[in-house]
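Thread: Modeling a multi-component assembly for a lab meeting

Hi all, long-time lurker, first post. My supervisor asked me to bring a structural picture of a complex we are working on to next week's group meeting, and I have zero experience with this. I have the sequence lines for every component (748 residues in total). Could someone generate the structure of the whole assembly? Inputs are pasted exactly as I received them:
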Amino acid sequence: MKKFAKLTALVLSMAMVVACFAGCGKAASSDTFKIGGIGPTTGGAAIYGLAVERGAQIAIDEINAAGGINGFQIEYKYQDDECDAEKSVNAYNALKDWGMQMLVGTTTSGCCVAVAAESVNDNMFQITPSGSSVDCIKNDNVFQVCFTDPNQGIGSAQYIGQNGVAKKVAVIYDSSDVYSSGIYTKFAEEAANQSFEIVATEAFTADSKTDFSVQLQKAADAGAELVFLPFYYTEASLVLTQAAAAGYDFTFFGCDGLDGILGVENFDTTLAEGVMLLTPFAADATDAATQAFVAKYQELYNELPNQFAADAYDAVYAIKAAAEKADVKPSMSVSEIGDAMKVAITEVSVDGLTGEAMHWDADGSVNKAPKAMIIKDGAYSLIQ
Amino acid sequence: MKNYLVKQKDNLITFGMVIGAYIIVEILMQAGLISSLLKGLLVPLCAYIILAVSLNVTVGILGELSLGHAGFMCVGAFASAFFSQLTKNSISADWLRFTIALIIGFVSAGIIGFLIGMPVLRLKGDYLAIVTLAFGEIIKNIINVLYVGRDSKGLHISIKDAVSLGLEPDGEIIINGAQGITGTPKDSTFTIGVVLILITLFIVLNLIKSRDGRAIMSIRDNVIAAESVGINITKYKLLAFSISAALAGVAGVLYSHNLNSLMATPKNFGYNMSIMILVFVVLGGIGNMRGSIISAVILTLLPELLRGLNDYRMLIYAIVLIVMMLFNWAPAAREYRDKLLSKINFGKKKTVEAVEGGNEDGNN
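Re: Modeling a multi-component assembly
Sure thing. I ran the full set together rather than chain by chain. Output:
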């Protein structure tokens, strides 16, 4: 009986091994570019991974319809990493087996660091739409579309200080999230040089992100005028609702994670009135490119795109611009493409959804201006 | 004596299986026949095999249900990655640094296992399972609030945030709270992984055969009887639990030195992972080391090889898991299998195996 189990196990594992080999038999065809993407499409962070997948898909469809890059069509494949570094590396390897030549990813910072450590060995050109930690771009083959966390933290602190928005500031942040704690750390450092004071710092974690009454109470007790919310809009909508229910009258200030707050289901958008945020993208901006993108996204997926989708869209166009500049061909090897793209991307300028005239430094970070927005009459509007 | 030889042969088969698999994979790798996906999975596979075997010591040999195994792995992973990060520049020989890291992972997880075991092992059955679950979560959460940095003045530790470390400008943060440790050198290789599996098997299989092992198993089978013949219950329970934890620490070292970024998320060190390891053990057969190895390999490979099915793969994975569990352990399925086997006629060995199978039932 044991033997039978063993036998079955053996047969099963052999079947798998055969399956593996079958997978790697495919040779790279040289008439299409193969672009891979990685992000969580299942699990708690799926909302971000799906946004990146879809945003990039729209860009690739547009480019293919317009004749592709350098006359070559793009093939696109997106793999799930469940927001786990180990799975992310697996996804990267699976895409490599598929013949990936350039990578749009990964979506989350922790995974991005792990994948970047692998991609540098292959000299694969990698551009992450939303991996915002500085460690993501340590290697010279990785570029970012979003701001790095430190830049957002410093930018927010400077904005609050220089414009005299408030004197006493409370911070609520997600200590289990790289993005949130990354921004907070730099915000707190920069705050020391600014004219305001951090009177309360309250953390929450992914396990306790539904009730913020304690954090708000402490902020009120400390006499804060402004509460800084460096995290995503789902939690922020709860903070706003609970603050309103408890009768607190803070000014709220957030980063790019807050963009999308007006689209939260069952959220009373009047509560978001007066919320300020520093973001490169707003789904209801009036320029033609954004409107076309938002309309397309809504038509295909029936929801408002968030900043992740816009970053991914821009990432694909950044690849296009650099690939055209360097005149790369699909027949080149991964490493040759990587070498050419690394140089070319620092020489191009891209007008994207998340910024005009975006250009990249050799260290991988992007240069674009953050826009300070305020929510007025149920819409984002630029603060002049 | 004959029985001893039979047991010895059984162990040799287990070692042979691991070495054989290693040789086959190495040959295929030299021939360039292995996909990058599988190549990337080799080291995690080794880590999961060690985890499954080590948990089998607690579950199969000691007979206690532990749901905190990922916590020990977490301790080993972070302790060793911390060490490697500290000495990345001062110890240039990779093998030396990694050997020390392995020892650190083994010892630190063992010590934590010992400390946790003292209060926890007073409990039995479901109670013990729940308390180990809690301890596993505590370990993960402590690491998530731990900030450690280094500058010219030495180490700084905080449990608030990175700012309060008060580092000098040239200082570097080593453990950055929830962001974990970044930039661990990639020292784990498949060969080292296989050697560690062999060492783990050597430790565990010899433990089972030893006098201590028999004492531990007697506790599993009947505590009162064991106590009545003068066996020190606490000592042997702690022994088995600490060894199990220490070996999980080794798996953690292997895991952490394979990835550049190490974060204690619910996914990799939470109770999900603990239960995953328990699934390896239960599917492979409680107390059956070889079964643990095979099921760890199958269940780790399965979701990756099903990548072609995109989001359906987790569904398929779950269904396959159910089917495999039923096939392996449901009474009706076993009866059917026996019937099938008697038709095929596997020969005289059948009676021996039926007896062994009976024992395993007793443990469940």
